[in-house]
Amino acid sequence: MRFSLEQLQVFVLAVQAGSFSAAARRVGKTQSTVSAAIANLEADLGVELFDRSSRIPGLTAAGHKLLLEAEAVLERCRALESHADSMAADVEPSLTLAIEVPYNTVMPVLQEFGQAFPHVDLIVRHPVYGDVSELVLKGEAALGIAFSQPGYPQALDFQQLGKLIMSHVTHPRHPLAALDTVSFADLHGHRRLAFSAHANKLPSSEYLRATQMWQAESYLALMEMVRAGLGWATLPRQLIRRELESGELVELKLEAYPHTDWLVGVDLIWPLRQGAGPAERWLRARIRQSKVFELDGLGRSTTL
What pTM, to 2 d.p., does this model score? Predict the structure, then answer.
């Protein structure tokens, strides 16, 4: 390479400072040292970067173009140093999360994580059958965020982050949609479309049994099945707000709970093992500080 990074730094600094003398003051060197560095860079590149015909040198056309290149090179060098520092601090190269709840509930924390650990690759898994705790238990995921379950294995710890609303919905032309209020008996008489992980596990789900039940391994599959008029389903309201507002889906009003929403807890799950890396410890602590919530029909938060 015909030039040095130090020469590029002096070049960019001279432009930012507005003059060779101002750049020299910033780095604690003489103006002649800065001038010599830029002159050597011009000689190495074979182009004039500054027009020196006036008292204060200004960038030439070539200088303007090469300034962008120089800034890009220096930015990549800073990224390289940052990545090396991260590896020297034993920061994990990647981290896997198992997330079962609507992703928008955790996006703010993941944005912060991306800024705090820019060199850690994040892998988000939506497990088959929604068994988040099993993935964490097997070590296939460092952390899990899932709807609360009645119990977890002793090797896992958890903390409730808040509560979300689950809505019973169907297609606008489904027979249940014509009812002002829906009883459990009404539900039992029609096909239930259930998320495999929660078919019989969520609190109070025993009341939602039906003579016919089809199951799917993802909420998106259930949404399409409901859109096709195949039955009724229980889905996170945050996931289907647009469809409810547009009228694509209709929310069923349960006769047993005319004035309350069905709230289900959301848990953060992690293993009790030792030896978690800096990125995992940071993310676990930050998620534990956050709250998962939404507003009910009266504008009240589901999490206090």
Answer: 0.69
- Single-letter code of the amino acid located at 78: R
What phi-psi label fits residue 169: left (phi over 0), alpha (psi between -120 and 50 degrees) or beta? beta
- Intrachain domains 5-89 and 94-161+266-289 with the same fold: no
Distances (CA, A) of 153 to 133, 139, 149, 167: 8, 13, 11, 29
Per-residue confidence at 258, pLDDT binned at 50, 70, 90? low
Domain locations in the chain as residue ranges: 5-89, 94-161+266-289, 163-263
DSSP state of 265: E
Give kind and range of the element (H or E) at residue 31: helix 31-45
* 3-class DSSP state of 266: strand
Domain 5-89 has CATH 1.10.443.10: no
What's the confidence (pLDDT) of residue 280?
Answer: 93
CATH number of 94-161+266-289: 3.40.190.10
Q: Are 177 and 199 in contact (CB under 8 A)?
A: no
Nearest-angstrom CA–CA distance, 181 and 253: 5
The pair of three-digit structure tokens given for residue 23, joined into one six-digit string: 């750049």
Residue 44 CB-half CA count within 13 A? 15
Top pLDDT among 190 and 257 is at: 190
- Contact by Cβ (8 Å): 222, 231: no
Quickly state the pLDDT bin for 88 (edges 50, 70, 90): low
Q: What is the pLDDT of residue 168?
A: 92
163-263 has which fold? D-Maltodextrin-Binding Protein; domain 2 (3.40.190)
> What is the reported pLDDT for 136?
93
